[in-house]
Design goal:
Blueprint (H helix, E strand, L loop, with lengths): L1 E2 L7 E2 L9 H10 L5 E6 L8 E7 L2 E7 L5 E5 L13 E4 L2 E3 L6 E3 L4 E3 L18 E7 L2 E5 L7 H5 L2 H5 L9 E10 L3 H8 L5 H4 L1 H6 L6 E5 L4 E8 L9 E8 L3 E6 L2 E11 L2 E10 L1 H6 L7 H24 L7 E2 L5 H13 L11
Antiparallel strand pairs: 1-14, 2-20, 3-12, 4-5, 4-7, 5-6, 6-11, 8-9, 9-10, 11-12, 13-19, 14-15, 15-16, 16-17, 17-18, 18-19
Helix pairs in contact: 4-8, 4-9
Length: 361
């Protein structure tokens, strides 16, 4: 962990080119995003054998399923015959997967079972024709996937987040309250820059700002896990759901975790293209425990959704200005924006191979 304290030196912002150039985004898809783990949802939605979740990540069709042995498995959602789809996006339950194109059948563990209309000997080695696997792992009641076989294990990727989470109620002891999905017309880095600092809170999130005890907010960067952490306390404001302690995290490249005494939410920032993202946030709460302290958790989700919408609105305006090409660059304050400084440092490290193509100034 690095303590981020105020200083007199100002840091130059990342050049506007990195926020809207399609070739930069293409590099990020192949060399950055695929090397990280991505939160895709709650493990409780994949509790029984045959439960599956099909979705698209980085323009790749994927499916995660609980197999007959109770193991989580991940595959590309495509048949080995001629790339037909196995299932439509969404949640469901299947005893096995049947290609929607020609009917090839696969076990939930990925093995090829049947090839209708083709003689048994026609495929010399059906053992090599199983579904193409991807890595999948769970932690604290959440499911993650990774497209890179050489990437670190999930708990190693999370780093110090694991120890921080141990200080809060595990999700297995909380109630899952559902999710919310938003589309935003901004680059993933625009959203990351915003999420890694509290400088904007007073202007953009006035309700949130009034409930926070600003003097007790400690912002640190953590190299073990590559994230910015906000150790936050709330005052006794009009909203009792914000009472007590909390810890907010922005984990590079696109994972947000918000721990609180009676609730938790997690958000994935899914890059769509150079100028747009899809946000998905999942909510958990411990209503019984909260009620013992006079807290009603019913307001937590609507308050959180309002904050998301406020962030989207300002980030979309910033994205327009960045994509105009007229922004000459600015400076970041070590006192007000230490988290964004660290986030942009991680961006520069991740894009080191192409920095020479786009001079910063």
């Amino acid at each position: 962990m690095q303590s981020l304290t105020a200083g007199n030196n100002m840091n130059e912002t990342l050049a506007h080119r990195y926020y809207h150039q399609p070739d930069v985004f293409a590099f990020e898809c192949e060399q950055v995003f695929s090397r990280h783990w991505w939160l895709i949802g709650p493990e409780s939605a994949l509790a029984a054998s045959g439960d599956y979740h099909a979705f698209t990540l980085l323009r790749r069709p994927l499916v995660v399923v609980r197999d007959q042995q109770g193991e989580l498995r991940g595959f590309y959602n495509l048949c080995r015959h001629r790339a037909g789809p196995l299932v439509d996006d969404g949640y469901g339950r299947r005893r096995d997967f049947v290609c929607q194109y020609h009917g090839w059948r696969y076990a939930c563990s990925g093995e090829l079972l049947k090839t209708p209309g083709i003689e048994n000997g026609a495929i010399e080695d059906s053992g090599c024709m199983g579904l193409l696997p991807i890595r999948v792992a769970s932690w604290n009641g959440m499911v993650f996937v990774c497209l890179d076989d050489s990437a670190a294990q999930l708990v190693d990727w999370l780093g110090d987040i694991v120890d921080i989470a141990a200080g809060y109620e595990p999700l297995t002891q909380m109630h899952y309250d559902g999710d919310v999905v938003r589309q935003a017309a901004c680059n993933w880095k625009t959203y990351g820059d915003n999420s890694c600092e509290g400088y904007h809170v007073g202007m953009v999130h006035q309700a949130l700002g009034s409930s926070m005890q600003r003097e007790s907010v400690q912002i640190d960067s953590y190299d073990n896990g590559q994230f910015v952490g906000f150790d936050v306390s709330y005052g006794d404001g009009k909203d009792p759901s914000r009472a007590g302690k909390g810890f907010w995290i922005y984990k590079f490249p696109g994972l947000l975790l918000h721990f609180a005494e009676f609730a938790f939410n997690a958000e994935s920032v899914f890059p769509v293209d150079a100028n747009s993202i899809r946000l998905q946030r999942w909510f958990w709460s411990h209503a019984a425990k909260a009620a013992q302290h006079g807290v009603d958790t019913a307001s937590i989700r609507p308050n959180s959704e309002r904050v998301i919408d406020e962030d989207i609105k300002i980030c979309e305006r910033v994205q327009i200005n960045l994509a105009s090409g007229m922004y000459p660059g600015g400076v970041l304050s070590p006192e007000q924006e230490p988290g964004t400084i660290y986030f942009q440092q991680l961006v520069r490290e991740a894009l080191a191979c192409i920095l020479h193509q786009y001079p910063e100034r």
